[in-house]
Amino acid sequence: MPSRRRALLKVIILGDSGYVNKKFSNQYKATIGADFLTKEVQFEDRLFTLQIWDTAGQERFQSLGVAFYRGADCCVLVYDVNVMKSFDNLNNWREEFLIQASPSDPENFPFVVIGNKIDVDGGNSRVVSEKKARAWCASKGNIPYFETSAKEGTNVEDAFQVIAKNALKSGEEEEIYLPDTVDVASSSQQRSTGCEC
Amino acid sequence: MEETALYPPIEPSNFDLIVIGTGLPESIIASAASAAGKTVLHLDPNPFYGSHFASLPLNDLVSFLQSQSQSQSQSQFESQPSQTSDDYASTPLVTRPLYSALEFNSYSSDPIDSSRKFNLDMAGPRVFLCSDSMINLILKTEINQYMEFKSVDACFLSDAEGKLENVPDSRSAIFKNRSLSLPEKNQLMKFFKLVQGHFGSESEEDKISEQDLESPFVEFLTKMGLSQKLKSIILYTIVLADYDQGNLKVCKDVIDTKSGINRLALYHSSIGRFSNANGAIIYPIYGQGELPQAFCRRAAVKGCIYVLRMPIVAVLMDKDGGAYKGVKLGSGQELFSSQLILAPHLTIPSTLAPAEQVTTCHDVRLSDTKEKVARGICIAKNSVNPEVANCLVFFPPRSLYPEQITSVRVLQLSGNVAVCPSGMFVTYLSAICDTAVEGKKLLSAAMDALFCMPISGNSGNSETDNLCELTEGKPCLLWSTLYIQELTTFQGAFHSINYTPMPDEHLHYNNLLDATEKLFQEIYPNEDFFPTISVSDDLQDDGGSEQDP
C-alpha cells in the first residue's frame, strides 16, 4: 500500500494543559480511552484520515517526548480565549514544536491556531480578542485561525478541512515512509481474520 | 536544575508506584501498573525519554555516555541520613558509572555537523523478530499505532576479511543461495523440515526424542549430519548463541536442543508474518528509543504522570523500621509511594542503608553479572554491502581470530529508517566479554573487517578520505565509538524498592521482557500484566460527558 501514508495524516494538538486534552479533541473521540483520535476528511474527491494525537497529559510538566512530535504533518495550537496565559504560551509551543519536530522547511510548516471556548459565560469572560489572535497568526506567516466553542463544535469542520489541505501541501518526511513500511497492525489482523482490509 | 524550579508542584503527593528512569523495563512497568489502575508517577532526570535504551542525536549520545561513565561527584548531596521532615530519614542517592573505556574517533566533521539528524541507539544492535514476544506485546497494547517499522533486508555471515555471505535462513533463501553446495542445501532443507515436523505433526514418529531435546544443540546438529558451516549458520545467526558452542570449556551458555529448535521455530514463524516484511526481522523507524516512549505514552493515557528533567536526590525511609516511604526530588518536593522502581545507575549507598535488607522476597539478584557488553557505533557513507541498506552481519566465534570465544553481532541501518541523514549508514556492533580489553579487541577486529580507516589528518580532503574505499573496496569510517557497558540484573534493594536492569547482551528483547513481567508480577501478584482490552467497551462519543469547570 504505497499510498498509505499520504492518506493518513498525523496531526498533533498542542497547548497549555487543560485546554487541550479534554476540550477540543473530545468532540472527536472515536473510541473510549483512546488518546488517538481519527477523523475522516474529504478533500478534492479523496478521503483522508486525520490521525489526531493529543498530549495525553505529558505536556503538564513539559515532558512530551520527541516521538510525539515526529513525522507530524500538521500542528494545531490551541488556546483558551478566556485565559491570557494560554495565548501567551502559543509562541512557546510553536517554538518547541519546531525544535523537536525539526521539519525540513520550518518557515512553511503548516500550523493552525484555534481559539477555544468562545461560548463560556456567553463570551463575557473572554480576554483575548479575535483581532489580537489574528494579528499574532499573521505575524507568524499567516497561520490559519479558527474559533470554536467546546459545546457546539462551531467551525471545527472548517478547521479540519484546512488542516487536511495544508498537511497535504507540505508532504513532510514523505520519502522515508515510501514505499515499504511494515504494517504490523493490518497484517496481523489479516492473519487472524483472514480478510483483506 | 533551573528548569525544575519552573515546574508547578506535583500533585497528588502519594502514589502507588514511583518509577525513576524511563528505560524500557521502567516504561513497561509504568504502563502495566497504570493499565492495572495503579496511580503512577514516572520521573526522569534527563530531558529525553529512554534512559539507557534511548536513541539520541550524536552529540547527546556522546555527552550521555560521558556523564554516565564517571561517578557523579557526591559533594552536592554529601549530607547524610539527616535533616528532613520530621519522621523520615533521608538517604542520598548516588549514581554509579555503568559505562567505561569510552573511545570516540572522528575522521570527518560531517556526522557531528548534522548531529541532530541522527537517532543513535545507546543499546544497539537490537531488532525485533516479527513473531517475538515484544512484537506481540506491542500489538496487544496497541502501541503499534505510535510506531512504524521497516524490514531488515538481509543477514550475512562474515569472515575476518569482511567477505559477506548470505544467511540461508528460510527455504527460499536456501534456494537462492549461491555459496552452499547442493548436498548442504539438502541437509539444511531436511533439517528445517525435521524441526517443522516436530512442532507441526501429531505423530510421535516426527517428534525429536526427549533425550535429544536435552542434549546440547550442537551435538544434535552434528548427529543430523550438518556440515560445520551449516552448524555455524544455525547456531550463531538464527539461534543467536553468544558463546562458542563447539568449545565447552569456554562456553557459558550451552544451548540445548529444546531451546535451539524453539528459537529456530520462532525465527521461521517470523518470516511472512507481516505482508511487507521481507524476512524475519524488522526495525522501528527513528530507532529503538521509540519503544520506551510508546510505552510511556500508553501509561500517560492511562493516567500516569510524567516529569522529565527531574532529578531525585534522596530516598526517604521510616526512622524506626527503616522501611521505604518516598523520595525527595531535586525541586525539594517530597513524594510518597508504596513501591519504588529505580533505574540501574542509581544506588543507595549500602553504608547508609537501614537494617532491613531484603532476604525474603528476592532470591536471584544479589549481585550483578561479571560479564560486560562491548558496544560500538560506526558511521560511514557507504553500505557494507552495496546491494542492501539495512542488514545484520554475524561474526561467529573463531571467525575473526582463533581465540574469539563469543559472537560479534552487527546491525547496519540506513537513512530510510530515519536514524541518520540519507546518504549515510549507521552500524552497531556488540559482543559479550569478560574484560574491556577483550571486548574492544573483538569489536575492533570486526570493524577492521568491515570498514577501512581514512588516513588521519586529511579530514578536509575528500579525495584522500575516500582513497581507502577505492583500494580496499570497503566503506570508509567517518566517525566511530566503542564503549563497555556493565550488565546488571533486576534487583530488590530493600523491601518495596526494585532496580531495573541495563540493556542485556541480546539482539532481541525476549529475556528482558520476561524478567520485566516477572518483576511486575512480584510487585502486583494479583494484577494482570496488561489485561486484554475488551472490545465491547462503549464506543460512543464521550464528548458530551465532560464537565466544565
UniProtKB/TrEMBL annotation, chain A:
It is a lipid-anchor. CDD domains: Rab7 (cd01862). Its main location: membrane. It comes from the Eukaryota. Keywords: GTP-binding, Lipoprotein, Methylation, Nucleotide-binding, Prenylation, Protein transport, Transport. PROSITE patterns: RAB (PS51419), RAS (PS51421). NCBIfam families: small_GTP. Belongs to the small GTPase superfamily. Rab family. This is Ras-related protein Rab7.
From TrEMBL, chain B:
Keywords: Cytoplasm, GTPase activation. The keyword GTP-binding does not apply. InterPro entries: FAD/NAD-bd_sf, GDP_dissociation_inhibitor, Rab_escort. Pfam families: GDI. It comes from the Eukaryota. It is found in: Cytoplasm. Belongs to the Rab GDI family. Substrate-binding subunit of the Rab geranylgeranyltransferase (GGTase) complex. Binds unprenylated Rab proteins. This is Rab escort protein 1. It comes from Rehmannia glutinosa (Chinese foxglove).
